[in-house]
Amino acid sequence: MDLGYRETGYNTEFTGNFDCSDDFYKQLWTKAERTLAVTMRDTYMDCPDRERAQWWGDVVNESGETFYALCPKSHLLTKKAILELINWQNEDGTIFSPVPAGNWIKELPGQMLATIGYYGFWNYYWNTGDKETIAKVYDGVKRYLDVWELDENGVLVKRMTEDDAKGWYWGDWGTNVDKDLLMNEWYYIALKGYKNMSELLGKMKEAEWAENKMSHFKVAFNKTFWTGNQYRSYHYKDDTDDRGQALAIVAGLADTDKYKAIYKILQTQEYASPYMEKYVCEALFMMGESEYGLKRLKKRFQPMVSNKDHTTLFEGWGIGQDGFGGGSTNHAWSGGGLTILAQYVCGLYPLEAAWKKFMVKPDLGGLEFAETSNETIAGKVSVKITKDNKGLDIHLLVPQESEAVVYVPQNAKSVIINGEKVKSNKLEGSYKLFSLRGGEHIIKYRQSM
User: Fold this and answer.
1) Which DSSP helix (H) or strand (E) runs through 19?
2) 100 or 296, which is more confident
3) What proportion of the chain, given as a percentage, has pLDDT over 70?
4) How many helices (H) and strands (E) does the chain have?
5) What pLDDT score does 448 carry?
6) 222-247 as b/e: b if 16+ CB within 10 A
7) Separation of alpha carbons 78 and 70, rounded Å
8) What average pLDDT score do residues 165-191 get?
9) How far, in Å, CA of 27 to CA of 16, rounded?
10) Does residue 101 surpass a pLDDT of 60?
11) Position with higher pLDDT, 217 vs 413
12) What is the CA radius of gyration of the chain?
């Protein structure tokens, strides 16, 4: 007489939302959100229909999405994942995932470096303010960093072969993966995370060590890998790896004088999997190429977003033989576009831990309007940005105990906040900064013609 089902999943709510003037990006958000839901249970999972394993490369992307899509209860699953990883650390200092595990002990060095670094452990703290968890895993992070050594050129010694019993030297699914280049970039990002953790915990000697290490490493990295028009490992002979170019931007290893050459590469090379495509798009926004960033995001994800048979995002660009790995149809590591839409298009990102202070720096990248909101650890944050041919209108909600810093281009000839014309003496780069406390605000600015 009747047929029904009761869905089960992790105990969190979808409190985030996104809307914009292009239906594709709304559909991408919805599918990313749905994929996130089915890959969260007692742990984060790479997918619910194959192994249900907590691979930490996936967790880095997944946890980043939760801060814009889910309520703060989701933070507990990330905390659990962090503690599990370090609590299972090997005696030699190496770490591995998935854990807990009884039949897998291989290290994936690229994923582990991403995990302990700026986009993994540190991003968790920055969004939650959970200093206690960082203190618990801090020594384990340093033990893992100490596993890595530098060669006579000042870059990483390759710690394992392509087929090593102790590790899986994996950079990404797909072809033309410059693994040595990627490992060095992830190492620098890991150092950045460790430096921030050290400062947080008042360990200034360790913070100074990390800062000096980063300074010398950046020089050595560019001397070793920059060829004059691209980044490339000495022994790598295949087509130029778009992932490696993008990650150099995201890490901060590539200075602005290299942006033009890298942008040219990212317009032609498309080898990154959905997992790494998040960093390619992020790099384009960081270089000021947001319009192309959204264009590339749409081009690459259009087939799976438009697929009528699946409500989730795939592990690769296709399904089955056309996909990567097991060809699964529900991999939340592919949802990095959700983070891009909230963090870069709508411009929301913490400036202090736990959203006590956050930026509002929208970059619509060719869209006419975009809006997003979510329940952060500090309370509800929402922003709606509407563009016309002269400037932007921004409707902003700031939690009562928080402060928002609105970034307005310097060439704006007038800035009106809550009906009053205002000026600012605070500058950062090509932006004027305006600080707003808790409540609703309407910001209007018009740019010089």
Assistant:
1) strand 17-20
2) 296
3) 100
4) 13, 10
5) 60
6) eebbbeeebbbbeebeeebbbbbbbb
7) 12
8) 96
9) 14
10) yes
11) 217
12) 22
**Dist. CA 64–CA 120, nearest whole Å:** 8
Residues 202 and 269: their CA atoms lie apart, in Å, by 43
Alpha carbons within 13 A on the beta-carbon side of 205: 0
What is the rounded CA–CA span in Å between residue 9 and residue 39?
Answer: 9
In whole angstroms, what is the distance from residue 44 CA to residue 59 CA? 6
pLDDT at position 351 over 80: yes
How is residue 363 written in tokens?
Answer: 């970059």
The two tokens of residue 265 are: 């590469």
Distance CA 8, CA 12 (A): 11
- Summarised one tens digit per residue, pLDDT across range 105-125 is 899 999 999 999 999 999 999
Element spanning 126, H or E? helix 121-128
Please state the length of the chain: 449
325 bridge partner residues: none
Distance CA 301, CA 383 (A): 25
pLDDT band at 392 (very low <50, low <70, confident <90, very high): very high
What is the spatial distance between Cα 443 and Cα 419, in angstroms, rounded to a whole number? 8
The HSE-up count of residue 65 (CA atoms within 13 Å, CB side) is 30
Type of residue numbered 217: F
Which strand (E) or helix (H) includes residue 259? Answer: helix 259-266
| Mean per-residue pLDDT, 275-288 | 98
Tell me how crowded residue 219 is: count the other CB atoms within 10 A of its CB. Answer: 11
Query: Using CA atoms, how far apart are residues 186 and 119, in angstroms rounded to an integer?
Result: 10
Average pLDDT over residues 123-135: 98
What's the rounded mean pLDDT across residues 290-316? Answer: 97
**pLDDT for the residue 165:** 83
CA 446/CA 138 separation, integer angstroms: 47
Residues 337-350: tens digit of each pLDDT? 999 999 999 999 99
Distance CA 179, CA 232 (A): 10
Spatial distance between the Cα atoms of 89 and 349, rounded to a whole number of angstroms: 31
Q: Cα dist. 47→43, 97, 202, 334 in Å?
A: 11, 15, 39, 11
- Residue-by-residue DSSP string for 207-220: HHHHHHHHHHHHHH
